[in-house]
Amino acid sequence: MSKESEEHASVRLVGDYARGDTDIAADEVWALEAHLEVCAACRARLSAAVETGVPAVASLVVTVWSGLEPSLQPTATMRPRRRRPVWLSAWLTPVMAPWLAMTVGVVLIALALDLAGPGFGEVSLVLLLAPVLPLCGVAAAWSRGLDPAYELTAAAARAGLHLVLRRTVSVLALVVPVLLVAGGPAGVSAAQWLLPCLALTSAALALGAAIGVTRAALGLMALWAVGVMAPPLITRSESTVLDTDSLPVWGLLLALGTGVVIARRAAYTTVPGTTR
Protein backbone atom coordinates (compact mmCIF):
# COMPACT_ATOMS: atom_id res chain seq x y z
CA MET A 1 0.00 0.00 0.00
CA SER A 2 3.04 2.28 -0.21
CA LYS A 3 2.10 3.22 -3.78
CA GLU A 4 -1.56 4.09 -3.52
CA SER A 5 -2.23 4.20 -7.25
CA GLU A 6 -0.64 0.72 -7.88
CA GLU A 7 -1.28 -1.42 -4.79
CA HIS A 8 -4.35 -2.25 -2.73
CA ALA A 9 -4.91 -2.78 0.96
CA SER A 10 -4.86 -6.35 2.18
CA VAL A 11 -8.10 -8.20 2.86
CA ARG A 12 -7.07 -8.67 6.49
CA LEU A 13 -6.42 -4.95 7.03
CA VAL A 14 -9.69 -3.92 5.40
CA GLY A 15 -11.60 -6.45 7.48
CA ASP A 16 -9.96 -5.36 10.74
CA TYR A 17 -10.65 -1.71 9.90
CA ALA A 18 -14.31 -2.45 9.12
CA ARG A 19 -14.74 -4.22 12.47
CA GLY A 20 -13.06 -1.34 14.33
CA ASP A 21 -10.14 -3.45 15.53
CA THR A 22 -8.14 -1.35 18.02
CA ASP A 23 -4.98 -3.42 17.48
CA ILE A 24 -4.25 -1.74 14.13
CA ALA A 25 -1.23 0.55 14.38
CA ALA A 26 -1.91 4.27 14.02
CA ASP A 27 0.36 4.58 11.00
CA GLU A 28 -1.47 1.71 9.27
CA VAL A 29 -4.84 3.40 9.92
CA TRP A 30 -3.54 6.68 8.51
CA ALA A 31 -2.12 4.97 5.42
CA LEU A 32 -5.31 2.97 4.83
CA GLU A 33 -7.57 6.03 5.12
CA ALA A 34 -5.34 7.99 2.78
CA HIS A 35 -5.45 5.08 0.31
CA LEU A 36 -9.24 4.81 0.53
CA GLU A 37 -9.54 8.42 -0.61
CA VAL A 38 -8.07 7.57 -4.01
CA CYS A 39 -8.96 3.89 -4.52
CA ALA A 40 -12.53 3.05 -5.49
CA ALA A 41 -11.79 -0.70 -5.50
CA CYS A 42 -10.71 -0.70 -1.86
CA ARG A 43 -13.69 1.45 -0.89
CA ALA A 44 -15.95 -1.18 -2.47
CA ARG A 45 -14.13 -3.92 -0.56
CA LEU A 46 -14.55 -1.95 2.67
CA SER A 47 -18.28 -1.58 1.99
CA ALA A 48 -18.59 -5.31 1.40
CA ALA A 49 -16.60 -6.03 4.56
CA VAL A 50 -18.93 -3.83 6.61
CA GLU A 51 -22.01 -5.57 5.18
CA THR A 52 -20.72 -9.04 5.95
CA GLY A 53 -18.63 -8.45 9.06
CA VAL A 54 -20.57 -5.70 10.84
CA PRO A 55 -24.24 -6.13 9.85
CA ALA A 56 -25.43 -3.81 12.63
CA VAL A 57 -23.48 -0.90 11.12
CA ALA A 58 -24.69 -1.74 7.62
CA SER A 59 -28.30 -1.82 8.86
CA LEU A 60 -27.83 1.55 10.58
CA VAL A 61 -26.45 3.09 7.37
CA VAL A 62 -29.43 1.78 5.38
CA THR A 63 -31.87 3.14 7.97
CA VAL A 64 -30.25 6.58 8.03
CA TRP A 65 -30.07 6.74 4.24
CA SER A 66 -33.71 5.75 3.82
CA GLY A 67 -34.67 8.67 6.05
CA LEU A 68 -32.46 11.15 4.22
CA GLU A 69 -33.09 10.07 0.64
CA PRO A 70 -36.56 11.67 0.19
CA SER A 71 -35.23 15.10 1.22
CA LEU A 72 -32.24 14.76 -1.08
CA GLN A 73 -34.21 14.07 -4.24
CA PRO A 74 -34.08 17.12 -6.57
CA THR A 75 -37.40 18.64 -7.60
CA ALA A 76 -38.28 19.81 -11.08
CA THR A 77 -37.73 23.46 -10.13
CA MET A 78 -34.55 22.89 -8.15
CA ARG A 79 -31.37 23.82 -9.91
CA PRO A 80 -28.33 21.68 -9.21
CA ARG A 81 -25.93 23.44 -6.88
CA ARG A 82 -22.47 24.12 -8.16
CA ARG A 83 -20.07 22.01 -6.19
CA ARG A 84 -16.81 23.35 -4.93
CA PRO A 85 -13.68 21.69 -6.28
CA VAL A 86 -12.54 18.76 -4.15
CA TRP A 87 -9.10 20.29 -3.65
CA LEU A 88 -10.67 23.51 -2.32
CA SER A 89 -12.67 21.63 0.32
CA ALA A 90 -9.47 19.95 1.48
CA TRP A 91 -7.78 23.29 2.15
CA LEU A 92 -10.59 25.64 3.22
CA THR A 93 -13.86 25.59 5.12
CA PRO A 94 -16.74 28.01 4.39
CA VAL A 95 -16.74 29.25 7.98
CA MET A 96 -13.34 30.84 7.35
CA ALA A 97 -14.64 33.19 4.66
CA PRO A 98 -16.19 35.91 6.87
CA TRP A 99 -13.20 35.86 9.22
CA LEU A 100 -10.76 36.22 6.37
CA ALA A 101 -12.87 39.04 4.92
CA MET A 102 -12.84 40.74 8.32
CA THR A 103 -9.05 40.34 8.45
CA VAL A 104 -8.68 42.05 5.07
CA GLY A 105 -10.98 44.84 6.28
CA VAL A 106 -8.86 45.35 9.41
CA VAL A 107 -5.73 45.60 7.25
CA LEU A 108 -7.34 48.24 5.03
CA ILE A 109 -8.52 50.26 8.04
CA ALA A 110 -5.05 50.11 9.61
CA LEU A 111 -3.49 51.21 6.31
CA ALA A 112 -5.94 54.09 6.02
CA LEU A 113 -5.09 55.26 9.55
CA ASP A 114 -1.36 55.00 8.83
CA LEU A 115 -1.75 57.13 5.72
CA ALA A 116 -4.21 59.60 7.23
CA GLY A 117 -1.80 61.50 9.44
CA PRO A 118 0.55 61.51 12.41
CA GLY A 119 -2.11 60.55 14.90
CA PHE A 120 -0.08 57.63 16.25
CA GLY A 121 3.37 59.15 15.95
CA GLU A 122 6.07 56.63 15.07
CA VAL A 123 3.73 53.65 15.38
CA SER A 124 2.47 51.80 12.29
CA LEU A 125 -0.81 49.98 12.88
CA VAL A 126 -0.13 47.70 9.93
CA LEU A 127 3.14 46.62 11.53
CA LEU A 128 1.57 46.07 14.95
CA LEU A 129 -1.33 44.03 13.55
CA ALA A 130 0.50 42.01 10.89
CA PRO A 131 2.00 39.31 13.16
CA VAL A 132 -1.34 38.34 14.74
CA LEU A 133 -3.86 38.82 11.93
CA PRO A 134 -3.43 35.29 10.51
CA LEU A 135 -4.40 33.95 13.93
CA CYS A 136 -7.97 35.16 13.28
CA GLY A 137 -8.33 32.74 10.38
CA VAL A 138 -6.56 29.95 12.26
CA ALA A 139 -8.94 30.36 15.20
CA ALA A 140 -11.99 30.31 12.93
CA ALA A 141 -10.72 27.26 11.04
CA TRP A 142 -10.87 25.14 14.20
CA SER A 143 -13.88 26.54 16.05
CA ARG A 144 -16.38 23.86 17.08
CA GLY A 145 -19.06 26.51 17.62
CA LEU A 146 -18.63 28.17 14.21
CA ASP A 147 -18.19 25.12 11.97
CA PRO A 148 -21.46 23.15 11.54
CA ALA A 149 -19.50 20.30 9.92
CA TYR A 150 -17.02 19.97 12.77
CA GLU A 151 -18.00 16.41 13.74
CA LEU A 152 -17.75 15.25 10.12
CA THR A 153 -14.36 16.94 9.79
CA ALA A 154 -13.11 15.33 12.99
CA ALA A 155 -14.14 11.89 11.74
CA ALA A 156 -12.69 12.32 8.24
CA ALA A 157 -9.63 10.46 7.02
CA ARG A 158 -6.39 12.26 7.83
CA ALA A 159 -8.22 14.69 10.11
CA GLY A 160 -5.25 15.16 12.38
CA LEU A 161 -2.10 17.22 11.93
CA HIS A 162 -2.29 16.78 8.16
CA LEU A 163 -5.54 18.77 8.00
CA VAL A 164 -4.44 21.23 10.68
CA LEU A 165 -1.40 22.20 8.60
CA ARG A 166 -3.43 22.40 5.40
CA ARG A 167 -5.88 24.91 6.82
CA THR A 168 -3.11 26.89 8.48
CA VAL A 169 -1.20 27.15 5.20
CA SER A 170 -4.37 28.25 3.41
CA VAL A 171 -4.87 31.07 5.95
CA LEU A 172 -1.28 32.24 5.55
CA ALA A 173 -1.52 32.02 1.76
CA LEU A 174 -4.52 34.38 1.79
CA VAL A 175 -3.52 36.84 4.52
CA VAL A 176 0.23 37.26 3.95
CA PRO A 177 -0.11 38.65 0.37
CA VAL A 178 -2.64 41.23 1.63
CA LEU A 179 -0.19 42.31 4.33
CA LEU A 180 2.64 42.51 1.80
CA VAL A 181 0.58 44.79 -0.44
CA ALA A 182 -0.50 46.97 2.49
CA GLY A 183 3.03 47.17 3.86
CA GLY A 184 4.36 49.06 0.84
CA PRO A 185 2.26 52.25 1.19
CA ALA A 186 2.62 52.09 4.98
CA GLY A 187 6.39 51.92 4.76
CA VAL A 188 6.53 48.57 6.55
CA SER A 189 9.05 45.94 5.49
CA ALA A 190 8.05 42.28 5.47
CA ALA A 191 11.30 41.54 7.30
CA GLN A 192 9.83 43.25 10.37
CA TRP A 193 6.67 41.17 10.72
CA LEU A 194 6.88 37.97 8.63
CA LEU A 195 9.08 36.01 11.04
CA PRO A 196 7.02 37.05 14.13
CA CYS A 197 3.89 36.12 12.16
CA LEU A 198 5.17 32.60 11.46
CA ALA A 199 6.45 32.25 15.03
CA LEU A 200 3.06 33.15 16.54
CA THR A 201 1.26 30.82 14.13
CA SER A 202 3.53 27.92 15.10
CA ALA A 203 3.03 28.81 18.76
CA ALA A 204 -0.75 28.63 18.31
CA LEU A 205 -0.45 25.17 16.77
CA ALA A 206 1.96 24.02 19.49
CA LEU A 207 -0.27 25.23 22.31
CA GLY A 208 -3.29 23.90 20.42
CA ALA A 209 -2.17 20.34 21.06
CA ALA A 210 -2.81 20.99 24.77
CA ILE A 211 -5.62 23.56 25.00
CA GLY A 212 -7.10 23.64 21.49
CA VAL A 213 -6.01 25.69 18.49
CA THR A 214 -8.89 28.17 18.80
CA ARG A 215 -8.17 28.93 22.47
CA ALA A 216 -4.45 29.16 21.80
CA ALA A 217 -4.91 31.57 18.90
CA LEU A 218 -7.32 33.81 20.80
CA GLY A 219 -5.09 33.77 23.87
CA LEU A 220 -2.02 34.82 21.88
CA MET A 221 -4.02 37.60 20.22
CA ALA A 222 -5.10 38.90 23.63
CA LEU A 223 -1.55 38.79 24.99
CA TRP A 224 -0.27 40.58 21.89
CA ALA A 225 -2.88 43.32 22.20
CA VAL A 226 -2.05 43.97 25.86
CA GLY A 227 1.69 43.41 25.89
CA VAL A 228 2.82 44.55 22.43
CA MET A 229 0.22 46.82 20.84
CA ALA A 230 -0.94 48.87 23.81
CA PRO A 231 2.42 50.30 25.04
CA PRO A 232 3.54 51.78 21.66
CA LEU A 233 0.10 53.24 21.02
CA ILE A 234 0.10 54.89 24.45
CA THR A 235 3.67 56.19 24.29
CA ARG A 236 3.54 56.83 20.51
CA SER A 237 6.91 55.18 20.03
CA GLU A 238 8.15 52.21 18.02
CA SER A 239 7.81 48.73 19.46
CA THR A 240 11.12 47.13 20.40
CA VAL A 241 9.51 43.70 20.04
CA LEU A 242 9.47 44.16 16.27
CA ASP A 243 12.96 45.64 15.91
CA THR A 244 15.34 43.85 13.58
CA ASP A 245 17.50 43.06 16.62
CA SER A 246 14.73 40.82 17.96
CA LEU A 247 14.47 38.69 14.80
CA PRO A 248 16.82 35.97 16.14
CA VAL A 249 14.48 35.55 19.12
CA TRP A 250 11.51 35.18 16.79
CA GLY A 251 13.46 32.64 14.75
CA LEU A 252 14.16 30.66 17.91
CA LEU A 253 10.47 30.76 18.86
CA LEU A 254 9.52 29.58 15.37
CA ALA A 255 11.93 26.66 15.60
CA LEU A 256 10.69 25.81 19.11
CA GLY A 257 7.02 25.91 18.08
CA THR A 258 7.69 23.78 15.01
CA GLY A 259 9.58 21.28 17.13
CA VAL A 260 6.72 21.00 19.61
CA VAL A 261 4.20 20.45 16.81
CA ILE A 262 6.34 17.68 15.32
CA ALA A 263 7.00 16.08 18.70
CA ARG A 264 3.31 16.12 19.65
CA ARG A 265 1.90 15.24 16.23
CA ALA A 266 0.09 12.26 17.74
CA ALA A 267 -2.08 14.68 19.74
CA TYR A 268 -3.79 15.71 16.48
CA THR A 269 -4.54 12.17 15.30
CA THR A 270 -7.90 11.64 16.96
CA VAL A 271 -9.35 15.10 16.54
CA PRO A 272 -8.10 18.12 14.58
CA GLY A 273 -6.51 19.75 17.60
CA THR A 274 -9.53 21.58 19.00
CA THR A 275 -11.50 19.37 21.34
CA ARG A 276 -10.16 20.79 24.56
From TrEMBL:
Signal is among the record's keywords: no
Keywords: Membrane, Transmembrane, Transmembrane helix
Ranges annotated as spanning the membrane: 88-113, 125-143, 164-184, 190-210, 217-235, 247-267
The organism's place on the tree of life at top rank: Bacteria
Name listed for the protein in its UniProt record: Membrane protein
